[in-house]
Amino acid sequence: MAEAGNWCLIESDPGVFTELISGMGVRGVQVEEIWSLDESTMEQLKPILGLIFLFKWQGASGSEPNVSSTGEPEGSTDHIFFANQVIQNACATQAILSILLNRDDLDLGQELRNFKEFTGDFPPDMKGLAISNSDLIRSVHNSFARSDPFVNEIQDPRASKDEDLFHFIAYLPIHGALYELDGLSRGPVNLGACTDDNWVTKANEAIMRRMEKYGASELHFSLMALTKDRIELYQEQMEEVDGMLLSLPDDATEERRRLDEDRNLLAHKLQLEKEKRARWHRENQLRKHNFVPMIYELLKKLAERKELDPLITTAKEKATTRATEKAKKKAENQ
């Protein structure tokens, strides 16, 4: 894979992805983690603009690009922004871009909009190279680099043969069809016709089929949704309720009571969302902070007070006990 400068590993986290998207100049959207595929969960997240799926990579899936659910070749995919992944560690950002650059209803911001127009006629490999050479995309991605020597467990496909490899792909509707966009595939995979109402259900079915290919013990999956900014959404809904309240006649007591309850609920949701966004921002600041000097000073003080060696001995004993228990459980399960 091409380097085009170093690209750091970033954590699979909705707060990270939301601030990454904002950093690229996109407005009006956020990312939410999905814990269940049931209808009620999906209903709460509407409108869903695209899905980002993380899974353990097992090599090429064998999916043929540009093939419908019936197995018949489809027509041109020139209307789809699809880029081959040519950069290590960039699959999360590339999956996000696969959604952002294929939606016509988003405020991309000037720079990303110019990038989309400039690369519109490029083939997939050249689009991938253009991403790798984008100062905006690379700098925002790398702004989430940890400034300490500890790295998270998410590894880019093909990065190492000795570790589990994880990969991000995107699902979204484009011109009446559901597409799977995977930068390690040769092209977009058409999963069949869909509507605005059923595309999420069809995408969930495709995701479940992928998950079923793994053993029952495999739990390393993550699913996130790109949604409309919940703060903006709740504010818009509150304005609608306020307008309805102003238009009510004085004797519409019951209707006014119901609308007041709706507004109070929206105000509560808005406050929770603002608190969550503040928490995400704080967590992102901590992710970027270098704690190594503080840890060094702490260990130094413990050593000076002759308290470090006993702690090391205790830690070794606990590690040995855990390893013994793990080996025992493994032997019992065989």
List keywords for this structure.
Ubiquitin C-terminal Hydrolase UCH-l3; protease; 334 residues; 11 helices; six-stranded antiparallel sheet; 6 strands; Ubiquitinyl_hydrolase_UCH37; 48% helix; EC 3.4.19.12; thiol protease; alpha+beta
Chart the SSEs and their pairings:
Blueprint: H1 14-23, E1 29-34, H2 39-45, E2 48-56, H3 91-100, H4 110-119, H5 124-132, H6 135-142, E3 166-174, E4 177-181, E5 189-193, H7 199-212, E6 222-228, H8 230-247, H9 253-288, H10 292-304, H11 308-333
Antiparallel strand pairs: 1-6, 2-3, 2-6, 3-4, 4-5
Helix pairs in contact: 1-9, 8-9
Structural write-up:
With 334 residues, the chain is α+β, with helices and mostly antiparallel strands. It folds into 3 domains: 14-228, Peptidase C12, ubiquitin carboxyl-terminal hydrolase (Ubiquitin C-terminal Hydrolase UCH-l3), CATH 3.40.532; 230-288; 295-322, no CATH class. 48% of the residues lie in helices and 12% in strands. The chain has 11 helices and 6 strands. Strands 1-6-2-3-4-5 form a 6-stranded antiparallel sheet, with helices on both faces. Helix 1 packs across helix 9 (253-288) and helix 8 (230-247) runs antiparallel to helix 9. The protein is globular, with a radius of gyration of 24 Å. The relative contact order is 0.16. Residues 6-228 form the UCH catalytic domain.
